[in-house]
Amino acid sequence: MQSVLWRMGFNLLMAGKAVLSPVALGAHALIFDREGKVLLVRHSYRKDWALPGGGVGRAEPPIDGLMRELREELGTLRADAPVFIGLYTRRSGWATNVIALYRLMNAEVDFRPNFEIREIAFFDPKGLPPGTSAGARRRLAEYLNQSPPNPYW
Q: Which pairs with CB-CB distance under 8 Å and at least 24 residues apart come from 123-126?
């Protein structure tokens, strides 16, 4: 009986922790074409240019979530296999986002604007357009060895 009560108490404690400090998992990508230009996207609900990617579903492996998000956002994508770069964190309201970042090289995209993504473009990573998100700028600066790794998105 004591074991059952302990498990119930532990489960309640963990449920309370999840409510008070939720964590959401996301996956994003640094996608480069054959010329070394990086792909940025402009969402319908944001003004800035950002790295493509999005939320990972419950019990979905991050790589599967990334590839699903890329299909949804970009359409047909041909590229080398994704390579895991690292994990990053950011605060989003009262929740925490943990973001898995991957790199895809030699990419070709057949894109059509959709509900979520209005436009995409490949840019020289050393000359990003005005309005590029801070997270994308940090990840590209790290990739180019212009800044040390930073665990915050």
A: 123/37, 123/38, 123/40, 123/49, 124/36, 124/37, 124/38, 125/32, 125/36, 125/37, 125/38
Reported pTM:
0.85
In CATH terms, the fold of domain 23-143 is Nucleoside Triphosphate Pyrophosphohydrolase (3.90.79)
Domain ranges of the chain: 23-143
149, 139 Cβ separation under 8 angstroms = no
**24-72 per-position pLDDT tens digit:** 999 999 999 999 999 999 999 999 999 999 999 999 999 999 999 999 9
Beta bridge partners of 9: none
